[in-house]
Amino acid sequence: MKTYELKCTQCGANLVISTDKDHAFCEYCGHRLVLAAENEYEAAVQVQASKDAAKVKMHEIDKATELEQTKAHTNKWKEYNKSQLITAGVLIICLIMLFFCH
Ligand SMILES: [Zn+2]
Prior knowledge:
With about 100 residues, the protein is an alpha+beta fold. It has one domain. About 65% of the residues lie in helices and about 20% in strands. The chain is built from one helix and four strands. It has one helix at about 35-100, and strands spanning about 1-5, 15-20, 25, 30-35. It has a two-stranded antiparallel sheet with strand order 1-2. A two-stranded antiparallel sheet has the order 3-4. The protein is rod-shaped. The model has no long low-confidence stretch (mean pLDDT about 85). The structure holds zinc ion (ZN). Zinc ion binds near residues 8, 10, 11, 13 and 31.
C-alpha cells in the first residue's frame, strides 16, 4: 500500500491517502484524484508549491510587521522633533518678551 500526500485539485483540501489503487476520491468534495506515477510526482510538487506559498506568505507578513515597526519608529521620531520644536519656540518667545520688557 502506498501513501500519497496531496492536495485536492478541486477543493484544495490537503489529503493523505493510503491505497493500492491508481485513483482515490477526495474525502471532502468527492473529486476523483488520479494517483498514476506521474501524478504522484505532480501531487508531491503541488504539496511543495503550497508549502512554498505558505513560506512566501510568512515572509510577507514579516516584511509588513517590519514596515509597521519602521513607521511607528518614524512617527515617534516626528513626535519627538515636534515637541522639541515647540519647546524651542516657547523659549524664543520668552526671550523676545524679556528683551522687549526691559
Ligand atoms: Zn476535494
